[in-house]
Amino acid sequence: xxxxxxxxxxxxxxxxxxxxxxxxxxxxxxxxxxxxxxxxxxxxxxxxxxxxxxxxxxxxxxxxxxxxxxxxxxxxxxxxxxxxxxxxxxxxxxxxxxxxxxxxxxxxxxxxxxxxxxxxxxxxxxxxxxxxxxxxxxxxxxxxxxxxxxxxxxxxxxxxxxxxxxxxxxxxxxxxxxxxxxxxxxxxxxxxxxxxxxxxxxxxxxxxxxxxxxxxxxxxxxxxxxxxxxxxxxxxxxxxxxxxxxxxxxxxxxxxxxxxxxxxxxxxxxxxxxxxxxxx
Length: 280
Prior knowledge:
Blueprint: H1 2-32, E1 38-41, E2 48-51, H2 53-59, H3 71-77, H4 88-107, H5 110-116, H6 125-147, H7 157-179, H8 184-199, H9 207-228, H10 237-257, H11 259-270, H12 273-277
Antiparallel strand pairs: 1-2
């Protein structure tokens, strides 16, 4: 009887240890999930990379170095170039050609990759990252304005929202979403979008004007492509850095000086291209 009692105690102890081991195992699995790399969107839209937490924290606090621009190159990059465009298809063909070059560069690692490939250029690699990002922004904007030069094209949610606004009126539209429990800030944003979309029905941008913007962008994208393929050494590194900084300066300025790019970015601000068209 005593032996049976001791045996029961021993068996119970084993069961408790076994259960504890199971819980501990689950805890290990749960904790290990925090070691997984962080997925983040990068400068190539719809293309992602994985970045570890160690990489993320090691990059924080680093200050990028500044490189002066070349005024002569600025003038050259801004020199007007003619490009004859008179139809939607011609506009899209030219804009898509820029996108093809952009995509090829970034498949090779982008201009950022060119900076990272050379030890002495690495401290300036923020310029490469910004060049990749802002070139995306410029090319996507030109593609968008080609498609929407005569009217803001809508589909899906965008078309439904405008139709609802026109059928209910502004107050009815607002009340409709309030009753659904939507956030007031979002409702105000949708009102602005609907009003902007209706106003944009009268949009008439000559393709010739978009052609001027694409021609200027082509000069910039050509240099962007060239920089990505440079074989950098001590003899040409300073030229590479200066041309990269100058190109970035001109691209950034175009967003506040080129009427077509400015309009595309206004569209994007009202509602991002992705949200309306579900593309790019």
